[in-house]
Amino acid sequence: MNSAEYFNHLARTRRSVFPEQYEPGKKVDDDIIKEILINATWAPNHGQAEPWQFMVFTGEGLKKLASFQSELYKQEAGDNFKESAYLKLRERPLKASHVIAIGMKRTTVKNIPEVEDIAAVACAVQNMYLSLTAYGLGGYWTTGGVTYNERAKPFFGLGKNDRLMGFFYIGYVAVPSPAAKRRPLDQKVSWVNE
Ligand SMILES: Cc1cc2nc3c(=O)[nH]c(=O)nc-3n(C[C@H](O)[C@H](O)[C@H](O)COP(=O)(O)O)c2cc1C
């Protein structure tokens, strides 16, 4: 396989792999996580602003994330409190080897629109997804839990103008995700060539 064929393979076999599918207790080497994060920061970004901020939770740190997000939910849920939602927030991070909080640090250079900072971070996350696939690991991006809760921001080192864009879960794959489908290209692409 040449490098283009290999990349086609990576891009097309990348799948979201969820925490329940990870090998329990098997930790990914931190050095691999660092390589994945370096790849994330090679994503395109307007103005070379690098509008990303990542916080990596692993080992005992996963318990801190689990406790922070479940307790914040409990404090705020009021009459809508659901035990199942609380337990999910408390238990899911512990199924992962690493969870990376994905932050967008708002650029202050060149009047770059916010949507472009968000787009750059999404490109970084795709680099993480593809890197995981190359390493034979599993993971996924979730925007669940406390992602859109303003009160969660300081815990992740984010200010008022920044955004928490979710969490990237990583683990060794015990149960692979099924093959996926995409709609045919002609439903999504038009060509202008004359
Ligand atoms: C911005 C974004 C947010 C996502 N949030 C969630 C989520 O909260 N929960 C979830 O199960 N999957 C989430 N996903 C993963 C999608 O469900 C997944 O990418 C989709 O099902 C396609 O599957 P694939 O990644 O295997 O191609 C998210 C994906 C993106 C790009």
How is the secondary structure organized here?
Elements: H1 3-13, H2 30-41, E1 52-58, H3 60-77, H4 83-91, E2 98-104, H5 114-135, E3 138-142, E4 163-171
Helix pairs in contact: 2-5, 3-4
Walk me through the structure.
- The chain has 194 residues and is α+β, with helices and mostly antiparallel strands.
- Helix content is 37%, strand content 14%.
- It is built from five helices and four strands, in the order ααβααβαββ.
- The chain is globular, with a radius of gyration of 18 Å.
- The relative contact order is 0.22.
- Residues 15-16, 140-144, 166, 177, 180 line the site of flavin mononucleotide.
Order of helices and strands: HHEHHEHEE
Structural class: alpha+beta
Mean pLDDT: 97
Strand content: 5-15%
User: How far apart are the first and last residues' alpha carbons, in Å?
Assistant: 34 Å
Spatial strand arrangement across the major sheet: 1-2-4-3
Please outline the major beta sheet.
4 strands, antiparallel
**Assembly level:** single chain
Ligands? flavin mononucleotide
Q: Which bin fits the share of residues in helices?
A: 25-40%
Distinct helical segment count: 5
Query: How many beta-strand elements?
Result: 4
Radius of gyration: 18 Å
What sort of overall outline do the alpha carbons produce when their principal axes are compared?
globular
In short:
With 194 residues, the chain is α+β, with helices and mostly antiparallel strands. It has helices at 3-13, 30-41, 60-77, 83-91, 114-135, and strands spanning 52-58, 98-104, 138-142, 163-171. Bound molecules: flavin mononucleotide (FMN).
